[in-house]
Amino acid sequence: MSETKIVVACCQLSLAVGDADGNRAKVRSAISDAARAGARVVVLPELANTGYMFADIDELRAAAEPLNGPTITEWANLAAQYGLIIVGGFAESGDGDLVYNSAVLIDESGVRTRYRKAHLWDREKDNLFTPGSDLPPVVDTAVGRIGVMICYDLEFPEWIRMVALDGAELLCAPVNWPLYPAPNGERPTEIVKIQAGATVNRMFIAAAARVGQERGQAWLGGSVIVDADGFPLTEIQLDTETIVLATINLADARDKAISERNNVQTDRRPELYSRIGKPL
């Protein structure tokens, strides 16, 4: 029987290309701090082993690691040591010269799944990363069913819906959100989209983001844990390294009713949605 109430942590960090040892040390410290704070699930940013702003494919290939490389091996050891579920992003060296923007879900038994980002953002398309072609995974864990996707994947409602229909109670997303101007007083649209994805699917979503500057790119921060009604459970912090934590009750995500007569899954009419699957 899976646990119901659990503590989820999102580790908001400043990372850097070319500092593999420093990145690993920073992530290692954050995982340990989250575990000591009572976390059962720990989410790390996108490309947490390498940083993001690569000059070219040669620099990326030199930094990328295989699934059994030092970063994932260390995360697996930490998951076993603390009894954690860890979801984190990493640059993965694949077959031949291919490199993927990937994420793993690891528990005490080791790597449970690996996901390769399907929707590439901006310069990721410039002969850097190869897009993944598999659906986002949903894994049965000791705490419940957890889905995994990465950053720009969250911009596609169809992708989030697939995870929800596969029974995910919690969606964990490593992200790197660039800092863009926003009107005063407005919440960043990246967070608004996560709130929308959570409420229309009655599912918890946890996104761990980056902060700081990296080769001229400013990162937004804004790591957030959102409940099944679409409301943030954590304070939105945009400019500091931090760990945000929330206690969630996964049973809330198993109830898809939004009124006595409405249900976000059974009210669907997929026979009307055929156009969504067709290319433009």
Automatic annotation (TrEMBL):
- What InterPro entries does the annotation carry? Aliph_Amidase/BUP, C-N_Hydrolase, C-N_Hydrolase_sf, UPF0012_CS
Keyword check for Ribonucleoprotein: no
Which N-terminal residues, if any, form the signal peptide?
none
Gene Ontology biological process terms from the UniProt entry? putrescine biosynthetic process from arginine
* Gene3D superfamilies the UniProt entry points to: Carbon-nitrogen hydrolase
| UniProt-listed CDD domains | nitrilase_2
Which keywords describe this protein according to UniProt?
Hydrolase
| Key word Transmembrane helix present | no
- Domain CN hydrolase positions: 6-250
- MF terms (GO), sorted A to Z: N-carbamoylputrescine amidase activity
Q: Which family, according to UniProt?
A: Belongs to the carbon-nitrogen hydrolase superfamily. NIT1/NIT2 family.
Indicate what this protein is called per its UniProt record. Answer: Carbon-nitrogen hydrolase
What is the protein's species of origin?
Answer: Cryobacterium gelidum
